[in-house]
Write a structure and sequence with these properties.
The protein has 16 helices and no strands. The protein is mainly α. The protein has a domain at 3-15 and 98-274: Orthogonal Bundle (Hypothetical protein af1432), CATH 1.10.3210. The longest helix has 20 residues, at 102-121. The model has no long low-confidence stretch (mean pLDDT 88). It binds fe (ii) ion (2 copies). The site of one fe (ii) ion has 5 residues, from loops.
């Protein structure tokens, strides 16, 4: 399949028959950048499980308001539409995968927590946006495996049999990686440029033209979360930190140690989000 057809296939993900209708409706709402806040909150409130997920998430260490947000409307006002749209996309798409990709969901939540810790340490603007980019950075893996389940399974098997990173195995099977697929879907859903670019370059932060700091933050989060073994990112290896990320973020070993310590404290709480309500 050539890249154009592949992209078109991936962009039509919301029409997959395996996606439940409530999710299809939600994706339609998320995909519209001009949707009024009230419509989004109505959509969330119509589904009690989703409501409790969203409230759990906004009160988690991923965002900066532990235990202080009690309503969906308040979350929308405090976090902004883009952050809530990103969070909903993450929650709903991972939900569609049910238990098959719970390891990846955990990895993604871990990255969101870690990205926030780094963003705060570096005094970056908009830590919530960076955090949501980290939450969605591997969304391309979900999209590829939803759309091409058999082929993606093979790619995952190759990581073990041939000792490949998941993005190498994807490249062999699809000629693109989850970073490309994720950026396509983020674009299709009209997400802001910083989010699209961060997803696209989270494995190659030095290629990011406008948002290298964001891309490097997510890159570093990804590797630290893999290194401590929180969740499962698709293969069992820990890739090296891209040298440009050290430079872009001006990191040294002692800052990394501090970040790892804070991660330990926050990740346990984040794990709570993984518990599916009413189970
Ligand atoms: Fe990735
Ligand atoms: Fe990742």
């Amino acid at each position: 399949m050539d890249a154009v057809t592949l992209r078109e296939e991936i962009e039509r993900i919301d029409t997959l028959p395996t996606i439940p209708s409530i999710l299809q409706k939600l994706l339609k709402v998320i995909g519209n950048p001009k949707v009024p806040l009230s419509e989004i909150s109505d959509c969330i409130l119509g589904d009690p499980a989703l409501t409790s997920r969203v409230l759990k998430m906004v009160n988690s260490p991923i965002y900066g308001f532990p235990g202080r947000i009690s309503s969906v409307t308040q979350a929308l006002i405090l976090l902004g539409l883009n952050v809530v749209r990103g969070m909903l996309l993450g929650v709903s798409v991972f939900e569609a995968m049910e238990k098959a990709m719970v390891g990846l969901w955990k990895h993604s939540l871990g990255c969101a927590v870690t990205a926030r810790i780094i963003a705060k340490k570096k005094n970056l603007r908009e830590p919530e946006e960076i955090s949501v980019a980290a939450l969605l950075h591997d969304i391309g893996k979900v999209v590829l495996s939803l759309k091409f389940p058999k082929e993606y399974k093979k790619a995952r098997a190759d990581t073990e049999q041939q000792g490949l990173f998941i993005f190498e195995a994807e490249k062999n099977h699809f000629n693109i990686t989850h970073a490309d697929a994720g950026a396509w879907i983020a674009q299709r859903w009209n997400f802001p440029k910083n989010l699209i670019e961060t997803i696209k370059y989270h494995h190659k932060p030095h290629l990011s033209k406008y948002f290298p700091v964001e891309a490097a933050t997510v890159h570093l989060s990804d590797i630290l979360v893999r290194a401590i073994g929180f969740g499962f990112a698709g293969d069992n290896f820990v890739p090296p930190i891209n040298p440009s990320a050290w430079e872009i973020l001006k990191m040294n070993n002692s800052t990394i140690k501090e970040i790892l310590k804070e991660m330990e404290e926050s990740l346990e709480e984040a794990e709570d989000i993984l518990v599916i309500p009413n189970e």
